[in-house]
Amino acid sequence: MINQVEGGRSVKFGGFTVLDLYGTWREMGRQYGALAQKELTETYAAGIEDNLFGRAGKGRDAADSAALGFYANYPYRFKELLAGMSETSGLDFSQHLLLNAIEVEVAGEIWAGSGMTQAHCTGIAVWGEYSSGPLIYGRNYDYFGWFRDLGKNLLVTVYHPCDGSLAVAAIGYPGGVYMTTGMNERGIFLALNNGEPSGGALAYHNRVPAIAELFMFLLDSPDLDQLESFFQSTRSNFAYVIGTADDQTSRCFEWPVFDVKRRLSVKRPGLMVATNHFTEPSWGLPRPDDAKFSWTRSRRQNLLNLAEHFKGSIDVARMKKILDTKLKDLGATTDNTVYQVIAVPGSMSLSLKIPELTDWTDIPIGDFLRRQDG
Known about the structure:
Penicillin V Acylase, Chain A; 35% helix; globular
């Protein structure tokens, strides 16, 4: 089913919706708000009303203040996008600011009061001797299990800015203007993992949020070398591990608030595994406690072992099985894996799954990243 509004369109693939947006940032925001009214409204009700205000008990004034603080250092183009959404979605601007901060505010508040330990994302890229063909990048996005309920409205949003930027596809929850998983029209893919076990919990609130910076990186990076230059030139506001890839290779950047290092200790050419701790030896850091930090070492070792076992035979079907293997079965997927993505930059294709909600769904993202004008 295809819907069209003001030059943008939405297309359904199984349980997932692709938004295909064109124009200025304000125009793309208007298209987004109109096309995703249902997804935005339902996500606000479940994520903000039920969980932030209900389950976490956070007051509206405090939530608004925190959401505004998160937005304050945003690049102007993204502020325009949010403004455009609020013109057509049926939600007001303050509600959009809360949606934009849902993974920061909602999850942060509930986590802080829960005493829970949770997993924080896993990635694996295979190429060369490990892949049976092209480079394949698989990732688990891990957060609170109740985010799976929001997953029924997970969006793949493709932006075609008229300002000369590259077209970019972002995978995430409705209303979020940032990048945790995405690909641009040149086939540059990236995926964000929490890096707190090695980089610490220090956060800077006077910097552009790193998840917004990653969006800008993809808009402006035609290749991995350009992408790396942005990492080397930009200070993060929090500690992250960022896996990146094109159709030939994968690079991993360990990105705390005070520095950034590209992981150079490649013992297994053709294989990159990223969890939540830094493995580049030049940091001189001890390995983090596994139980305290959501089994980051076990998840990494399990994926290394699976990659060795299936070396040379890993295709998309095999990667799906690897990502479907749970931690207790010597894989990396946990009860906090809220969605999964497989990217093949060479063929510009994605596969998405929400555990216990959808099957693996293939999306020809290249068909959307190519501009309508050719």
